[in-house]
Amino acid sequence: MARKYDNRKLYYWLMGSCLVLIGLAWFVVRLFSIPVAIGMSAVAAVLPPIAVIVANWGQD
Predict the structure, then answer these.
(1) Is the whole-model pTM more than 0.85?
(2) Per the UniProt record, which residue ranges are transmembrane (predicted)?
(3) Phi, psi (rounded to 5 degrees) for 59
């Protein structure tokens, strides 16, 4: 049961960082550098599939 909790905690951290990256890229960073905002959005787009894989890791 401890493993499932750790997976869920890491899942929430990854999804939270995804939301923070999107928010910062769209509302703050784009005012200073559009290429950096696009890069942040690209990283944020990759995080949800990784988060799902991590959340389901070790489950039967």
Answers:
(1) no
(2) 12-32, 38-58
(3) -100, 145
Residue type, 22: I
| Per-residue pLDDT tens over the stretch 38-50 | 999 999 999 999 9
- d(Cα 33, Cα 50) in Å, to the nearest integer? 26
Q: At what angle do helices 34-55 and 2-27 cross, to 10 degrees?
A: 160
Q: Please state the separation of Cα 21 from the chain's center in Å.
A: 8
- For 10, the token pair is 């890491």
Distance CA 31, CA 11 (A): 30
> 15-48: string of b/e by CB count within 10 Å (b at 16+)?
beebeebbebbeeebbeeeeeebeebbeebeebe
